[in-house]
Amino acid sequence: MLRFLIKRLLLTIPTFVALMFVTFIMLRLVPGDPIEVRRGERGIDPARLEQLRHEMGLDQPVWKQFLDYASGILHGDFGTSIVSKTPITHEFLTLFPATLELSLCAGLLAILLGVPAGAFAAVNRGKFFDQTLMATALTGYSMPIFWWGLVLILFFSNTLHLTPVSGRVDLVKFYYPQHTGLLLIDSLIWGPKGAFLDVVRHLILPTIVLATLPLAVVARMTRSSMLEVLEEDYVRTAKAKGLSPFRIIGLHALRNAFIPVITAIALQIGSLLAGAVQTETIFSWPGVGHWLISSISRRDYPALQGGIMLIAIVVISVNLLLELTLGIINPRLRHDQ
Amino acid sequence: MKTYRLISTAFLLGTVLVGAAQAKTLVYCSEGSPENFTPAINTTGTSFDAARPVYDKLVEFTPGTTQTQPGLAEKTDVSADGLTLTFHLRKGVKFHSGVNGFTPTRDFNADDVLWSFARQSDDKNPWHKVSGGSFDYFSDMGMPDLIDSISKTDDNTVVMKLKQPNAPILANLAMDFATIQSAEYADFLMKKGTPEQFDQLPVGTGPFSFVDYQKDAVIRYKANPDYFGGKPKVDDLVYAITPDASARYAKLKAGECQVMIAPNPADIPAMMKDDTINLIQQAGLNIGYLSMNAQKPPFDKPEVRKAIAMAIDRGAILKEVYQGAGQQAKNPIPPTMWSYDKDAVDIPYDPVAAKAALEKAGVKDLQTDLWWMPVQRPYNPNAKRMAEMMQADLEKVGIHAKLVSYEWGEYRKRAQAGEDQMALLGWTGDNGDPDNFLAVLLGCGKDGKPNGNNIPKWCDAKFQDDVNKAVTLVDQGERTKLYVDAQKIVDAQVPWVNIAHSTVFEPVSKKVTGYKVSPLGSHEFENVDVTE
Amino acid sequence: MTSETVTGEVVQLAPPTRFAAFWRAFSENRGAVVGLIVVCLIVLSGVFAPLLTSYNPLEQYRDAVKLPPIWAEGGSWSHVLGTDPLGRDMWARLIFGSRLSIFIGLSVMLVSTVIGVALGLIAARVGGLLDTIILRLMDLIMSIPDLVFAIMIIAVIGPNLVNTIVAITFVFLPRYVLLVRSAARVELTKDYVTAAKVSGLRPLRLMLTTVLPNCVAPLMVQAALGVSDAILEAAGLGFLGLGAQPPAPEWGSMLADARDLITSAPWVMAMPGLAILITVLAINLMGDGLRDALDPRLRRS
């Protein structure tokens, strides 16, 4: 087990270095100067531009800039944002909890709804429920989520006035310390009366939008792997033995069907974060995805580089963790590189 | 992180105390996160708005106008030759106490003024390089070439010597880059070893003191009871950062904020009908234009440029892009600015005559590019839509325009380098002076080369003489004559197509009183009150 | 290697009875058939767009701006689905827009299949260092959220239709490469491959004539889903203003243009989104049918 762990960890190193290299090179190729971009209508004096480029180290040879950057990262320094002049890690850490909370809620919703629905559909294969569910899941899978978000806003916020349209909590009514950055927890423990409900109200629409795709994937995945398991001999034997259907599905089938589902969920982490980019843009959610998009338009190189590196670290480590969990559940997978 | 927690605890205490006395809160739905809280190193209106409650300047713009009034300088004397300015500073002005663990030991004085300008002008100043050291407005307004020296004669008197007379200097000093910050706070942070906090956790003399800022979410301020202009009418000021205009509107309707910036033009009709909203409007100090590169044929011919102006249906653009929220422009400066040429005759929309004029000039089946800005600006709410309309109009007179856009910084750089043939752009005034439009946007240097911001790359000797002379004069009557003459030259030469001066709309809750829209696009809340 | 050779080989190896069996299985699935019909309709409406409307999708009718569709109050028969904020006919823009979306979807699918097959086969056959490098590269692409990566690529090469295709192809590549690689590795261990090797078949021929045809089934399913994913991704980029440039009637950018009208003229926003949803859903229905028909394990016995 340990050897497997070490091997996997070592394998991430080249990926990481390559990632650092690729983001670095790409951002140097992007047209548009991070200094120019902030100048609005006014433009900048060429001499002044040179001086600023020099101060930021942009006039150094590219390989030198890269080495400086790489050594910074090794020391845990991801650079400083050009726009806000604050360290990237600080910006990331203040914004990441918002993304984390949204993604966790969406992921949880996808699993809690998707797994039972998929299992139920499999057991009732071909019946009305199965067909409706699969049609719904496929629609969810085909949904352009930025449009979906706008449609939900149109109905629930603009027409019915049921949910707020943006932000994480009504900051004016509810102001309290945010120790964890996860507002559900903060508002429950430290928040004034009503704050928790308000946080939930703000979370509803973004969670639905972000959960749509993973929910469809999980439901479909659970259904198909359940179908496979239900065909297996031991389930048939159990059935023949007269075990109650609940026991068969709950204990035997679902447990075995769960491994491919977990794998599917793991593969969804990346797309969950990609979805978060769109969801956060639509709902003005103060998270990492929203920040990355605006960093691109502001040509904030350090923020982009650092942000992408940090996100990649999150994705890589989550995948690693899931792989390890699966390796523990099912030792056969360990050798299946 | 540690400082943040410290602040939030301090604030909690604050709310508990104020909460008992029924605090009045004003919430402003702003557009985005500020870059930081020091105006001198920023360039965006969003950042200026965020710093303004905290700070004062020597001279201030009277709210809702482009006139100036005394600020931290009670009185300003200008010498007869216009070369020496003497500022008599207000006494007994206190810096905010308790922000970031800082307690001022002295009142505001001349050292703070000297410090604030030295940080920008002196590259040997230890603070010059803190937070990147880019003092864009200071250099853009020509301060390094204009200011000869700044010195103090005593604690309450500062003398500024200029290299040549400059009519708009006082208005320039009312701009945000000339904000006065605390030298003592700077020393305090330098000793603490955290100079970068200076621009993140601001300490000023202004009507509100800074409480807390969460990126992309909220900025909080509380009223400064010792403010020299009197304590503001609201106790707490909150900026709720809401990038999406529809979302801001929804929040305003729901009472989650009382003032909002930049409504969607498409939502204006609904806002007008809304009983709970007061839709304040004011002619903006701006111009949106379509530049034609005078150095690239056939745009070097004034008759071609004029024909293009005739071919474009600006009435339709005003209706569909601005949703009627503006005024069709006939001059390069807005009508609310002094010296505006009222007698100018607008170029009519006449595609038939335009086509004939183009044919006469030998222009047929012209392939050109038409650049549109990738961002929404006050003077152009939707450049893409505008460009698509112009493209259709130009097609009708035989000009095939290809729409081009770049990322905003790149767009500016390339347009300044004159890479475009036709480009949409515009300008919002900084200080209410015509020089800030005419000389900056259409001026050329002594070498006969167009200034960077002269996007049409158009130079005219007579125009240049007028503008150069006018800036050194003090008498507004004489300056007006020169500027009117300059406008007549522009109107005859058509270096760009004047599109519109947009109207700035600010939807405000009916509960709000005393709010004034600034023609300069800034947002101020010291005189604003909320009734329950 | 071109895609023609790929399909050519399939036909050669697949006796007509196999296709008939596939078609029987496919047509049993009602959803798949509906999907197929809708996809055909969309493609036809794109191809014959000029016959289905008398309007030019770029013509601006300034006196009929933001006209609601016929069923809403104020609608008019002159513009059945209404007009956009510039007075352009919505129906004309939607059907001309389907050309763009289908074109993007098919191009991305073709290019990434070809490159994916090539890289996947190389990785599986050569193995060793090359395999590791290809795998790590795919890991790298997958560790950045695909939309963010696509945006970065477009930021470098500039926004237009072709570059949209390039960027999406790039971020979708890992799916094809990994799929082909793992399928090919399984095939390579089988007896018939060893037999072919022993009989002296050249490596390239071996991969193309024996291994590849056996990976075709999963590849086809992936390709079908690839088309719909590409259409979605392109619309997402268009929504952020990074896709086809104006005045092209690209669905995603039509949506983005209508975003400020969400309260005042919601139909302008609703319709392009609906068009995207229907197209993608139809293709996915078809893809599901394809998978069920090709995957013998799920086929009903």
Which key features would you list for this structure?
heterotrimer; A: 337 residues; mainly alpha; MetI-like fold; 73% helix; globular; B: 532 residues; alpha+beta; 7-stranded mixed sheet; 5-stranded mixed sheet; 17 helices
Detail the topology: elements first, then pairings:
The complex is a heterotrimer of chains A (337), B (532) and C (301).
Chain A: H1 2-29, H2 46-55, H3 62-74, H4 88-123, H5 128-141, H6 145-159, H7 183-189, H8 195-231, H9 233-241, H10 245-283, H11 288-297, H12 301-329
Helix pairs in contact in A: 1-12, 4-5, 4-8, 4-10, 5-8, 6-8, 6-10, 7-8, 8-10, 10-11, 10-12, 11-12
Chain B: H1 2-20, E1 25-30, H2 45-51, E2 56-57, E3 59-61, E4 68-70, E5 73-78, E6 84-89, H3 110-121, H4 136-140, H5 143-146, E7 147-154, E8 157-162, H6 169-173, E9 179-180, H7 183-192, E10 208-214, E11 218-223, E12 236-241, H8 245-253, E13 259-260, H9 268-273, E14 277-283, E15 286-292, H10 302-311, H11 314-320, E16 326-328, H12 351-360, E17 366-371, H13 383-396, E18 399-404, H14 408-416, E19 422-428, H15 435-442, H16 461-472, H17 476-493, E20 496-509, E21 512-513, E22 529-530
Parallel strand pairs in B: 1-12, 1-13, 17-18, 17-19
Antiparallel strand pairs in B: 2-9, 3-4, 5-6, 6-8, 7-8, 10-11, 11-12, 14-20, 15-19, 15-20, 16-20, 21-22
Chain C: H1 3-13, H2 16-28, H3 30-47, H4 49-52, H5 90-126, H6 128-142, H7 146-157, H8 161-188, H9 191-198, H10 203-239, H11 251-257, H12 266-294
